[in-house]
Amino acid sequence: MERSFIMIKPDAVQRGLTGEIISRFVKKGYKLVAMKLMQISRELATMHYTEHQGKPFFESLMQYTTSAPVVAMVWEGKEVVATARMMIGDTNPLQAAPGSIRGTYGVDLGRNIIHGSDSLASAKREIALFFQPEEVLMYSLTLENWMYEQG
What we know:
Mean pLDDT: 96
Low-confidence stretches: none
Number of strands: 4
Number of helices: 8
Radius of gyration: 15 Å
Strand content: 15-25%
Distance between the termini: 14 Å
Helix content: 25-40%
Shape: globular
């Protein structure tokens, strides 16, 4: 099973969308294995968004990301990285597919509701930034037998 890092961003937390977003992943059948509400430091935000350093929007991204609490999560399941990206939708909410999280709730590129890892390598790096190994749980859900073929 794969793991992906998903972060509900400050705008979604402020707008009270946390429960709805978590519900979508649960209803899809993914398992929440770590979660925390936290205020991100500039240092952590810089490490998280390191690939955007030097870009024109980097400073506004740092201000936004550190402006209010976020919900950091690790979700587990079959092909969770790719599927979560589809569920999240295009980075620009105005171009995101109807029904996607950003397509449903987003209205501005600079306030795009949610972050999701874009690859297994990114997921591993991002999970390690936000969680200690002992904070990511290993457990079974009884519904897993109903979700995945055995064998």
